[in-house]
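Handoff note, outgoing to incoming analyst
You'll be picking up this chain. Sequence as last confirmed:
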Amino acid sequence: MKLISWNVNGIRAVMKKEFIESLNSMAPDILCLQETKAQDNQVVEALKDIDGFHIYINSAVKKGYSGTAILSKKEPLGVTYGIGIEEHDQEGRVITAEYKEFYLVNAYVPNSQNELKRLDYRAQWDKDILTFLQKLDTKKPVVFCGDLNVAHTDKDIKNAKSNYNKSAGYTQTEIDGLSAFIECGFVDTWRYFNPDEIKYSWWSYRFNSRAKNTGWRIDYFLTSRRLLEVISDTEIHNDVYGSDHCPVSININF
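Most recent structure output, in case you need it:
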């Protein structure tokens, strides 16, 4: 089962950039999208030419903002939206699909924004989603994927020193937030299988950053440790364009 996560930075925009060709080339069984930037009906319209998937959508109340979707060839046992906390669930950031062997949680984690004005909110969000994941994990293993909006170590960001505690996504508060997931038993699968490799999943549209590979690794698959024995082929698909993020993937072999 191939799982792909991709922040598309606007589902309507990415559809004009060979999205279907990329989808066919990568051939996922499950595709998790973040930052759809559209309402439910607009996402349905954008995806109308894609066949063979059950589609689940969680859009923000605010139009043109945030939003997530899951496209799954296999119909899940059940799907839920949000994490049960109204303050967080207004922004369409989480979809959970339950399968026989695991829970899949697709998330678009809040950005701390310019001047870190949303950092305190982000810190609370991290704590609340971790509690949510831990509850699921008591029932069956969890796959947690998406744009987590944090580079965890200096291996995951090109210019670590100049960004540390200054830029959203590389503050100690956010780093500690991701560390808490790992300390609670959720494994950063790509780093687990590629301990020393430098590879990024997001590049600013400014300064020709992608061509220069001045990037950040902020898109992840975190999984319950007991799933590691069935996970293979962790990838960061740098060759796929269409967004300021590239897709990331894992294979789960049940």
